[in-house]
Amino acid sequence: MVHKDIGIPITFDYHHHWCNPGDTDPLTEEESLKLAASTWPKGVRQCTHYSSAKRVYEDKTCKIVKHADYIYDHINDYGLDIDVVIEAKAKELAIMKYAKDYSENLCIV
Length: 109
Description:
By secondary structure, the protein is of the alpha/beta class. It contains 5 helices and 3 strands; from the N terminus they run αβααβαβα. The protein has one domain. α4 (54-57) links the parallel β2 and β3 (82-86).
């Protein structure tokens, strides 16, 4: 694991894990998020990235790795206290829509 060699915490990316969970014995999303969490120092909140697939929700013709304009699914933190960086082309509009759709326990900064 790269973290063991260089000591830099791993930032888990939900979308990229969804696109490529691994070829042999892939980890679940939860397992991958928690493995990345184990690389963060105590007292430092884990940073993660989240985006939806543009191809799934907005444009069936584009590459699967493209980020959508908005976030379409609830972000599952699996009980971890994490910071989530939203990667959405609509920027603040995407955050406002997500807050409206999933307003429980949100802390938006």
